[in-house]
Design a protein that fits this description.
elongated; 228 residues; Porin; single chain; two-stranded antiparallel ribbon; 8-stranded antiparallel β-barrel; mainly beta
């Protein structure tokens, strides 16, 4: 009888704990879910970036597009290229073929592209904030304006990796269009291509400080920016 009594008490305690837990159970919530569904849309458009370049102002143009989840987070791709002219000289370059060359007024070519990810805070407001990062691969080189002169049309090709975080302000103009203003810093790694002068001195084709620069951007974004 004592054993049956103990088992009965244990069973009642187990039933009580089960009922108590059932009463306190709440529905699981998720960062990327509103009413239980992830709403998928997208956007894309042109990007113009203003930045320092060799002591002057440089402009990069390009564009990007992304998949947008619940008007909150996005991921996609982008591509940017330098459109303004930044000039460099290569003096007394021993090209390793028995020639010493002097090149003046060479144009700098710089472009990169890759992944674009970000977060938008309170996108339902007409004016709201966001953060994003562009991570990509690219190249820097020097070129003459007169292509086809000889086999030396491009010099100092340097493959680089770019990380460009930004803080942004967005303006919702229509359900299908918004303006994005961003400010950030572009980090460029792998700028290390060198050449040897006729005197045996090693010099850089490119200076990393010319590309590691703060920047501001203007993006015109077209897509699905409807209600959450």
């Amino acid at each position: 009888m004592k054993m049956k009594g103990k088992l009965g008490i244990a069973g009642m305690l187990l039933l009580y704990v089960t009922l108590l837990c059932a009463q306190e159970t709440k529905e699981m919530s998720y960062l990327l879910e509103g009413d239980g569904k992830v709403k998928v849309s997208g956007f894309g458009g042109p990007i113009v970036e203003f930045t320092g370049m060799g002591g002057s102002i440089g402009v990069l143009t390009g564009g990007g597009g992304a998949v947008l989840l619940n008007q909150t987070v996005f991921f996609g791709g982008y591509g940017m290229g330098l459109t303004t002219t930044y000039r460099r000289d290569i003096l007394n370059w021993d090209d390793g073929r028995g020639n010493v060359r002097n090149f003046y007024d060479l144009r700098t070519d710089f472009g990169h592209g890759g992944f674009w990810v970000g977060y938008i805070h309170q996108a339902y407001k007409p004016v709201h904030l966001g953060i994003s990062t562009r991570l990509g691969w690219g190249a820097i080189s020097l070129s003459r304006d007169e292509y086809g002169v000889d086999e030396y049309d491009s010099y100092g090709l340097d493959n680089v990796f770019v990380v460009n975080p930004q803080l942004e302000v967005e303006f919702n103009l229509f359900r299908w269009f918004k303006i994005n203003l961003g400010a950030g810093y572009r980090f460029v790694t792998g700028v290390d291509k060198t050449y040897t002068t006729a005197d045996g001195i090693r010099k850089n084709f490119h200076e990393s400080n010319d590309f590691n620069q703060p920047e501001v951007s203007l993006s015109l974004l077209f897509g699905g920016f409807g209600s959450y």
